[in-house]
Amino acid sequence: MKTIRNSVFDTERALYGEKEINVVGCTFDGPADGESALKECSNVFIDNCCFRLRYPFWHDDGLTISNSEMTDTCRAPIWYSKHINVCNSEIHGVKALRECNDVRLENCDIISAELGWSVNTISVSNCFAEGEYMFLRSNNLNFDNFEMKGKYSFQYIENAGFKNCTFDTKDAFWHAKNIHVKNCTVKGEYLAWYCENATFENCVIIGTQPFCYCKNLSLIDCEMHEADFSFEKSDVEAYVNSHIISIKNPRSGKISVPSVGEIIMDDENAKGKIIVG
Questions:
Q1: I want to staple 97 with a disulfide (CB 3.0 to 4.6 A). Which of 52, 116, 146, 215 is the partner?
Q2: Of 243, 242, 192, nearest in space to 218 by CA
Q3: 25 sits in which H/E element
Q4: Angle at 66 between CA 61 and CA 70, to 5 degrees
Q5: Which helix (H) or strand (E) holds 257?
Q6: Rounded to an integer, what distance in angstroms lies between the CA atom of residue 187 and that of residue 193?
Q7: Distance of CA 82 to the CA centre of its chain
Q8: What pLDDT digit, counting tens, does each position of 113-156 carry?
Q9: How many CB atoms lie within 10 A of CB 118?
């Protein structure tokens, strides 16, 4: 396996099509302002490198990145690639991880608008992310100890598990299908509207108008704070262990809650049962 060390690259497609290479201590920056440095490569190992130029990892197969930095000028750094491992690294370019397959992120700091669109199979652990529209239309997701700050996250995802996570977001999990959220704190407005087959277990839910228009929604031993007009037109089985400000027109199922400020049942199609006490 060829090793490239302590070099600077700034030309267009500087290492295009390389196979079985180690790239160590290199910088991708300079006056030539070239794009797509490692396009169409396979079995690439990156360590202690800095990427400041655009589109470095497109159409790659077998990519391991460690102890490296993709700066805010490294636009759309990883697209159309598969078998990707990124650890102990910074991903600060917009539109990271699009149309990728088999991705693992560990101990990463991520600041990226439109992160993780249309990704198939991703595992994320011990990471922080900030941005808007995260993981749109992705599937087969597994998140553990993930902290996120942003807006419009996890919309239209399918088949996902989240545990020990903290989300500060808005409009999260809209139209999500087949998800399990456990031991998490989720803060944000309009949580999980239109979701289907979603379970929230031992979670803290904070924010206005959560869980509306849901199908087959389950809450198990959750707390809900600042939650008004909850569960509107949803099919829900919920066991909540905190006070809820208001519940409005659940379509079907049962909601068990110790206390509720207001129950609004002014829709003749609302058949959900609310058990207080």
A1: 116
A2: 192
A3: none
A4: 85
A5: strand 252-257
A6: 14
A7: 18
A8: 999 999 999 999 999 999 999 999 999 999 999 999 999 999 99
A9: 16
